[in-house]
Amino acid sequence: MTSIVNTSLSSEANIEHDAVLDADIQFTQPLSQYALNPQAVFLTGATGLLGVYLLDELLRQSQAEIFCLVRAIDEDFARQRLVSHLQSYGLWKPEYASRIFPVIGDLTEPQFGLDDALYQQLAETVDVIYYSAGWINMLYPYSRLKPANVLGVKEALRFAGLVQTKPLHFVSSIAVFFNDIHPEDKVLKETDIPIYHTSLKGGYGKSKWVGDRLVASAQERGLPATIHRPTRIMGHSQTGALNDNSELLPQLLKGCIKLGKYPAWDIEVTMVPVDYISRTMVHLAASPENFKKAFHYFNAYPIRWLDLMSLVQAQGYRLTEIPYEQWIDELKQRIDSQDEQYSGDKEFYSRLLLALKVPHYLFYKRPRFDSKNIEAGVQGTNIQCHKIDEELISNYLHYWQKSGFCPKPDQ
Ligand SMILES: NC(=O)c1ccc[n+]([C@@H]2O[C@H](COP(=O)([O-])OP(=O)(O)OC[C@H]3O[C@@H](n4cnc5c(N)ncnc54)[C@H](OP(=O)(O)O)[C@@H]3O)[C@@H](O)[C@H]2O)c1
């Protein structure tokens, strides 16, 4: 099969060009009769953080069969990936087995890498698409991230229009707004269009912007699609579960705990528990008035870094505040230390140091957002975003202690 990845067309200069949806992607087929109450869902990203909670939510809130696109060598391995991923988050139930169907494929391939027969069969069967897959990487340029974050979206949109029109619920990112043209005090509404500007931060942000705009074009062409833009996604609000801790914030928290010191930053930190997003997305997908809209997922109560450190200390960690430069020096000393007790952690300290050398959203002064569409959409339910408070941070730290990611206090 020919690859749809054409790196010669992937340079930064082509970003706006890449956001133009192919003319042959149209949504003229009748809408699936089960668009609001799906019998068959196609889910991407189920082996990721948000995807596994969407899978769980869909299994609990519907009777649908869930077809999960998974990268794997064979079906057994794909199934094993899904089951062990659900298990690792404490979500697995044996009765789920008969409703989860792994589809071995890759978003960067035409037809997701599926043969014609299976692709056609899925196009006829699937009622709704949830697109949570993405390649999150703050170091790579746009061209490297384009196959997964742009071409995959186009493939999903093409699939959405085939045989029967399937609503598509797309996970974008609030990063589509991170450029220098928004005045600091401007509140960005869900109805605001993320305008392209060359100052758009990072290859990842650019790739998400293109994906976001492609889905918006599909909305204009008649696809009942929703666009979901989260800020930083963190673990489950009650269980604290977060197994992939590669994002900078968990790494930093661990670094501060291990050093017993934290930098005296004057920054604001935000995070959204994953269960708030998965619950909200599945709920919103059941009402046609939400189609063709965008939704902003952010914490209404972001927290100052120093207040976050107080919440960490309230869990029993004794931490000292020091200037950032000194903190970095201490990190370097751990990396260079000959002391046996630090030898196992050198790679962790080195990666943390490297991550702090590149620009990161954590240090970007965000505009303010509103979430009127979500507020209207979840009215009458008990869905709400957990505050960043002592309970939430305690849940996260206890989970990390149990999973071995973080040492317990005084260890
Ligand atoms: N995490 C955040 O803080 C955050 C914030 C805003 C927006 N988002 C967006 O939210 C979505 C979900 O994020 P997440 O944290 O759940 O991500 P994640 O844990 O890194 O999971 C990414 C998922 O995408 C899949 N994937 C990547 N490339 C693929 C490909 N070529 N073909 C098929 N599947 C592919 C991965 O499969 P493998 O397991 O095979 O790698 C995995 O299942 C992403 O679109 C991300 O851009 C995330």
Helicity range: 25-40%
Bound molecules: NADP nicotinamide-adenine-dinucleotide phosphate
Low-confidence stretches: 1-10
Please, what is the oligomeric state? single chain
- Indicate the radius of gyration in whole angstroms: 22 Å
* Strand order, largest beta sheet: 3-2-1-4-5-7-12
Largest sheet: 7 strands, parallel
Query: Under CATH, the topology of the domain at 7-235 and 272-297 is which?
Result: Rossmann fold
What's the CATH class of the domain at 7-235 and 272-297, please? Alpha Beta
Would you write up a description of this structure?
The chain is α/β, with parallel strands linked by helices. It has a domain of 255 residues: 3-Layer(aba) Sandwich (Rossmann fold), CATH 3.40.50. It is 38% helix and 13% strand. The protein is built from 13 helices and 15 strands. A seven-stranded parallel beta sheet has the order 3-2-1-4-5-7-12, sandwiched between helices. Strands 6-15 form a two-stranded parallel sheet. The longest helix is centred in the middle third of the chain and has 19 residues. NADP nicotinamide-adenine-dinucleotide phosphate (NAP) binds next to helix 2 and helix 5.
Name a few traits of the molecule:
Rossmann fold; disordered N terminus; seven-stranded parallel β-sheet; 13 helices; two-stranded parallel ribbon; 411 residues; globular; alpha/beta; binds NADP nicotinamide-adenine-dinucleotide phosphate
